[in-house]
Design a protein that fits this description.
eight-stranded parallel β-barrel, 436 residues, 8 strands, TIM Barrel, globular, alpha/beta
């Protein structure tokens, strides 16, 4: 059937139409199209695939699929070299990131965004509220609700696959934030902009008030809505509080409204959360949002590790994904400190990929442990080339071994001839085990 017979991946699945994107995702996930089709139809899996992003290598996002990771990039007033950002994009895609979010907040953002959707095979996401001030070159309080909606349409037209929209905070949230005295208030950049706009204009959140019109735009281009959690906790003290949960209830209602128009939805989640609260957060989201894929930032499990937040985020991300999160937003060592450089991006991606992979093994995702089993075989055989082929980051592994090379190739410089693997191989083969 032609594209005209369906508007979105969700509508196609509900009509029993197998799109090329769904076919690709099924193959990647080792599923039959018959297994995947009802998951997309019900909203439990999304395939973000804007009709204008023609170079996309599509991916599915859902808790029963491989856990995907997103990489945040983009220029700021202090770091405005688009060539450097493109280098980060290419590096991220090479290292296996499934999604790139352009969070640029300076300069002429559209050419970079259009370059991404013209050349990048990964899913592309944006936060249109950031771009509104930049696009119009006007202060926040001078923008109208129409201005915000028009920027969403602009991003959809440019080929963006998913947009983060902070639809869940309303004027009621202003009273809640003032009354409940959070330690960190609102730490979502987009959420704070919407909150500030409502405070200055006295109007309702345009992303909530004009949600039906936004759904029509997303349906036209098949843009997936990522419902932003403006009230996500920015420190452990604010985790799972009334502001966060009340917004999540509203996001569940907005998910249902989107599905009524065949628009695909992801729901964004925390944030900073103690380890013992992560599983409960995932369960509450799955219940309130009816199984819509959960997209989490971290969660960061402690507040006191600036410079190492890629590790705190990976710990939380692994726990979250094991309990149902489908999509991890990477966290870099520069989180809370600076715009990440190339090395920060690499460290953030690797940490997130480890978290995602560990969770997939725990969940029993098809084929998840296959490479680990191959690594076990290569290590038993002291096959270094085989180990590089299995490694998430073979270049780093090779560099460490080369920097501290052993006297004998069948060992490493830590154990030498005391190597347990070497000794066991020789013992089981009936060979003499020489140590000295």
């Amino acid at each position: 059937m032609s594209d005209k017979s369906y508007a979105t991946q969700m509508e196609a699945a509900r009509k029993g139409i197998v799109t090329p994107q769904l076919e690709t995702v099924a193959r990647k996930e080792r599923m039959s199209v018959e297994e995947l089709l009802p998951l997309v139809a019900s909203g439990k899996v999304v395939i973000p695939a804007n009709k204008k992003h023609t170079c996309l290598d599509p991916e599915g996002v859902g808790s029963m699929l491989r856990t995907k990771i997103n990489v945040n990039l983009g220029v700021s007033r202090d770091c405005k070299d688009y060539d450097v950002e493109m280098e980060k994009v290419l590096s991220a895609v090479k290292m296996g990131a499934e999604a790139i979010m352009d969070l640029s907040s300076h300069g002429n953002t559209q050419p970079f965004r259009q370059k991404l959707t013209a050349e990048c095979p990964a899913m592309i996401g944006t936060v249109p509220v950031y771009d509104s001030v930049i696009h119009y070159q006007r202060d926040l309080d001078t923008l109208s609700a129409r201005d915000f909606i028009d920027v969403i349409r602009l991003h959809a037209r440019d080929g963006v696959d998913f947009v983060t929209l902070h639809c869940g905070i309303t004027r009621k949230t202003i009273d809640q934030i003032r009354r409940h005295k959070r330690k960190m208030n609102i730490v979502s950049r987009g959420g704070s902009l919407v909150f500030a706009w409502m405070c200055m204009t006295g109007e309702e959140n345009p992303f909530y008030q004009y949600y039906d019109e936004i759904l029509d735009i997303c349906r036209e281009y098949d843009v997936t809505i990522s419902l932003g959690d403006a009230c996500r906790p920015g420190c452990l003290a604010d985790a799972t509080d009334v502001c966060q949960i009340e917004e999540l209830v509203r996001l569940g209602e907005l998910t249902k409204r989107a599905w009524e128009k065949d628009v695909q939805v992801m729901v964004e989640g925390p944030g900073h959360v103690p380890m013992d609260q992560i599983a409960a957060n995932m369960k509450v989201q799955q219940t309130l949002c009816m199984g819509a894929p959960f997209y989490v930032l971290g969660p960061l499990v402690t507040d006191i590790a600036p410079g190492y937040d890629h590790i705190t985020g990976a710990i939380g991300g692994a726990i979250a994904a094991m309990h149902g999160a489908a999509f991890l937003c990477y966290v870099t060592p520069a989180e809370h400190l600076a715009l990440p450089n190339l090395e920060d991006v690499k460290q953030g991606i690797i940490a997130s990929k480890i978290a995602a992979h560990a969770a997939d093994i725990a969940k029993g995702v098809r084929g998840a442990r296959e490479m680990d089993d191959k690594m076990g075989d290569a290590r038993r055989a002291l096959d270094w080339e085989g180990q590089w082929a299995c490694a998430l980051d073979p270049e780093t592994a090779k560099a460490i071994r080369a920097d501290r090379s052993p006297e004998h190739d069948d060992t490493c410089s830590m154990c030498g001839k005391f190597c347990a693997v070497r000794s066991m191989n020789k013992a089981l083969n009936g060979e003499h085990i020489d140590i000295l």
